[in-house]
Write a structure and sequence with these properties.
It is a single chain. The chain contains 37 helices and seven strands. The chain is mainly alpha-helical. Among the domains are: about 130 residues, Rossmann fold (3-Layer(aba) Sandwich), CATH 3.40.50.300; about 80 residues; about 80 residues, Winged helix-like DNA-binding domain superfamily/Winged helix DNA-binding domain (Arc Repressor Mutant, subunit A); about 110 residues, Serine Threonine Protein Phosphatase 5, Tetratricopeptide repeat, CATH 1.25.40. The strands form two sheets. Strands 2-3-4-1-5 form a five-stranded parallel sheet, with helices on both faces. The chain has a two-stranded antiparallel ribbon with strand order 6-7. α23 runs antiparallel to α24.
């Protein structure tokens, strides 16, 4: 760059002292001195005139008239320097030009001769025509190498490699920080790296390792002192913004998030950020326009925040309230649109959990729960569980044992376990939440109804229909009492009872409840509401299960139309509706109509939810099932395998959906005569279902039925008979004698016994 321009300013992209500007300039001047046969003059920016006169004296240059001002004298010496050594380029280094104002004051001292090159080190973002080389922090590998070299004891580093890397990260891979801790460790040869890291975490920038500057270092300031030089030049407003920034997470910070915390004019905020903090290298800007704060700058700003005393908690409260308002916009069902809108805010929403003591009882759980919903929305179950558990702990610490917020935190954690198929963990949490709601609000409160409804949903999924029904009915009774017959919440209870009865084969009762729910949704919410579409879809599913395809199809189509109009063509709920319609066509063997719908649903889910989402796995599984039905086994198998892999990864080895995938893959192998491959998959699926649902669940009966069918095909009739008999008994108990599945098992048992008798 020096060869391409008359002037070059070296600045720090991370915006701080200690990045290595002066050191780089010194090494450059030393290494490439042969490129400057005309000579090199190095001077501190605040001593330019003094140094020019000093160098002129060393070189024996003739003196200008005494009455000339400093500018003319400096330019005279440049001219005489060029005359004394006429050949070759020469380099002038101005070290530590503090800011743009300091640079303007030096412009009269710039040499006009193109044979001169000027190298400037500065914290300021000097503008055109000066070209900038912006220095960033070291790479992870370079930072580790530098620390190891400074410590000078490879064996010592080798025993604590992980801690050594953590030390580099703690100082943000800032060269000055690494040099200070490296030289400190060299001096204190018996000090464990882990001990030093603990001291840094406890004492921050006040730690001796960062305060004591060894005499052999050319840079004499500690990190804190280096930052203080820039801090002292800030306006009070910019200092307030800097203190506020220490509350944000170490992640890109969009400007609007900062503005939301301050009741200021937008341009005033921009001036503090861009004109002061960025231009003084205390803040930097990412390629996407967000602001970046270095780890040590954040520690420095945090110390400044503490010094504000009274104003500190006000800034913390503003920060927490602003992030909570954004968190409130995150729904339980997270789509790609939601992810795109709030993704940048999530680490900062998480940071507000440190300040819930400043937030009122109503909103203190919001940051925890919405962060959990965000992560759950793209199947990051561990992260979601972390925040829900943290919420439970916070509410218990804050409210005691029986507060409604504790019930909400327990209920939310139960919902996560419920979704993951961790039913045994979900149930006690649901029960505990229900007890608190009953104690605090009474048995007829809407919150009690929600808790009853979700516990009933859990029991329904476990096949515990006799336990689910009274809870559904109790929830329905509360909602009728509190809201009336036509309220949407009442309709939701009716709809859920319909699902329960449909599962048990009580189709007439289910149809009645579905129709009541649909009519309530229509009258209260309108024909085009999503709840109306849900009722239509459930009613269509009921007709589909009964083989009433001509009645099911128009309802599925109507539901799809509503969902598309409300959510658009690329929404995950639209994908589910497409999937349902495709299944209806699939059951009717209308394969050419089903396939494009399955493919469209799959494409939407891959786009909106990602390649590894459980809903994507459902689409892969269903598309494979279609190909399986058509005998397109080579196309079906990789899709079944892909769906299985996703479910094992995202939901776990013991999830019911994982069992479904194992069962379907086994069925494919059985259809191909690959019996030895099918059997272990059927057995694994059965084991999961027995573990998750128990022996008396309809899904367990399905696995028993399928395994029995396999043994029938390979003529192991005794095993086939025993399993099919067990399946029939489960279905009779759970579904009744007249359910289609029960009748199927009964007929299959007759066939097996007949084959057994014939030998």
């Amino acid at each position: 760059m020096l060869q391409q321009s008359d002037r070059l300013a070296i600045t720090a992209a991370t915006g701080m002292g200690g990045i290595g500007k002066t050191t780089l300039a010194w090494h450059y001047a030393d290494r490439y001195r042969s490129d400057y046969p005309g000579g090199i003059w190095w001077m501190s920016a605040n001593q330019v005139v003094v140094k020019v006169l000093e160098y002129a004296g060393f070189m024996g240059l003739p003196s200008p008239p005494d009455e000339w001002n400093e500018t003319r004298k400096v330019q005279w010496f440049y001219q005489k320097w060029a005359e004394v050594i006429p050949d070759g380029t020469r380099l002038i280094v101005w070290d530590d030009v503090f800011d743009a104002e300091a640079y303007r004051s030096l412009q009269d001292y710039l040499p006009p001769d193109p044979r001169f090159r000027v190298l400037i080190t500065t914290r300021a973002k000097l503008s055109h025509p000066i070209r900038r080389l912006e220095l960033g922090v070291l790479s992870k590998a370079a930072a580790f190498r530098l620390l190891r070299k400074l410590v000078g004891d490879d064996d010592r580093i080798a025993t604590e490699v992980k801690t050594a890397k953590a030390l580099c990260e703690w100082v943000g891979r800032l060269p000055l920080g690494i040099e200070l801790i490296g030289r400190y460790l060299e001096i204190h040869a018996t000090l464990k790296l882990e001990t030093l890291l603990s001291r840094l975490e406890a004492q921050k920038l006040k730690a001796r390792a960062l305060q004591q500057v060894p005499s052999e270092m050319p840079y004499r300031d500690s990190i804190e002192a280096a930052f203080e030089l820039s801090w002292q030049t800030l306006s009070e407003s910019a200092k307030q913004v800097g203190s506020l920034l220490s509350l944000f997470a170490l992640a890109p910070i969009p400007k609007e998030l900062i503005a939301n915390c301050l009741d200021w004019d937008e341009e005033d905020v921009e001036d503090c950020l861009d004109v002061e903090l960025v231009n003084r290298s205390l803040l930097s800007v990412s390629n996407h326009g967000s602001y970046l704060l270095h780890a040590l700058t954040r520690e420095f700003f945090a110390a400044k925040l503490e010094s504000l005393i009274i104003e500190a908690d006000e800034l913390r409260r503003r920060f927490a309230e602003a992030m909570i308002e954004i968190a409130k916009t995150i729904p339980y069902t997270v789509t790609l649109e939601v992810i795109a809108r709030v993704k940048a805010a999530i680490p900062h929403i998480e940071a507000t959990t440190a300040y819930t003591y400043l937030i009122g009882d109503k909103d203190c759980v919001v940051s925890y729960t919405r962060a959990a919903w965000f992560y759950g929305g793209h199947s990051l179950w561990q992260e979601s569980e972390y925040w829900l558990k943290a919420c439970r702990k916070m509410t218990i610490d804050r409210f005691g044992e029986n507060h409604p917020n504790i019930a909400a935190s327990l209920h939310n954690l139960a919902q996560l376990y419920h979704l993951q198929g961790r039913y045994s963990e979900a149930e006690p949490l649901y029960l505990q939440a229900l007890n608190i709601y009953r104690l605090q609000f009474g048995k007829d409160h809407p919150a009690t109804a929600i808790s009853l409804n979700n516990l009933a949903e859990l029991y329904r999924l476990q096949g515990r229909y006799s336990e689910a029904e009274p809870l559904y009915l109790e929830a329905l009774g509360i909602r009728r009492l509190q809201f009336g017959e036509d309220h949407p919440d009442t309709a939701t209870s009716l709809n859920n009872l319909g699902v329960l009865y449909a599962k048990q084969g009580y189709y007439a009762e289910a149809e009645s409840f579905y129709i009541q729910a649909w009519q309530s949704y229509q009258s209260q919410l309108g024909l085009d509401h999503l709840h109306s579409a849900t009722s239509l879809s459930n009613l269509a599913g009921l007709y589909n299960d009964q083989g009433r395809y001509l009645e099911a199809e128009p309802l599925y189509l109507q539901a799809l139309q509503i969902i598309r109009s409300q959510l658009g063509r690329n929404h995950p709920t639209t994908a589910q509706s497409l999937n349902n319609l495709a299944m209806a066509y699939h059951y009717q063997e209308r394969y050419t109509e089903a396939e494009p719908l399955y493919l469209e649903a799959l494409q939407i889910r891959q786009l909106q939810l990602g390649q590894d989402h459980p809903d994507t796995a459902q689409s892969l599984n269903n598309l494979a099932g279609l190909y399986d039905s058509q005998g397109r086994y080579a196309e079906a198998e990789p899709l079944y395998l892909q769906a299985l892999k996703i479910r094992q990864s995202q939901l776990g080895q013991d999830h019911p959906d994982t069992a479904m995938s194992l069962n379907n893959l086994a069925a494919l192998y059985r259809a191909q005569g690959r019996y030895t491959e099918a059997e272990p998959l059927y057995l694994q699926a059965l084991k999961i279902k027995q573990s998750q649902f128990g022996l008396d669940h309809p899904d367990t009966a399905t696995s028993l039925n399928n395994l029995a069918a396999l043994y029938y095909y390979i003529q192991q009739f005794d095993q086939a008979e025993a399993l099919m008999k067990q399946a029939l008994e489960v279905r009779q108990r759970c579904l009744g004698n007249d359910h289609p599945d029960t009748m199927n098992s009964r007929e299959s048992l007759k066939i097996i016994r007949s084959a057994k008798e014939q030998g």
